[in-house]
């Protein structure tokens, strides 16, 4: 078991769960997914073509003047594979094509979770993204993880609400 994390959608942050004055325990795979998705990964110096398609721009350009912050976690400084995801970059994405943003979100999720395959924790990952029918500024997504010996995947559901859409 691992420390349980409660995700607060409105505040876009997770907190350790406390039960009866002690840390609550939860599924370690769920904790790994939450940390991988909702920790800010360092942005690349130059966005990819698909990043640019949805309006993700490099730090410090005209659209982001004065914003040199590429975020990330200081512990990644010497790491071969950084933790976290670039979902945070979608906060200011341009909603020129709703489908393009969902495809970019899926790609970012897969990038963040690739280490689970590389380390042999899971054999495959399925990701599905969709716009929420309740809130046009919310993307909902499911992540299904197939462990090597499991007959069924473990599926986790999340949503991400942001400004700028």
UniProtKB/TrEMBL annotation:
Family annotation (InterPro entries): Phage_Mu_Gp46 (IPR010877)
Q: What is this protein called?
A: Bacteriophage protein
Instruction: Report residue spans for region: Disordered.
Output: 43-73
Q: Write down the superkingdom of origin.
A: Bacteria
Q: Which organism is it from?
A: Gluconobacter cerinus
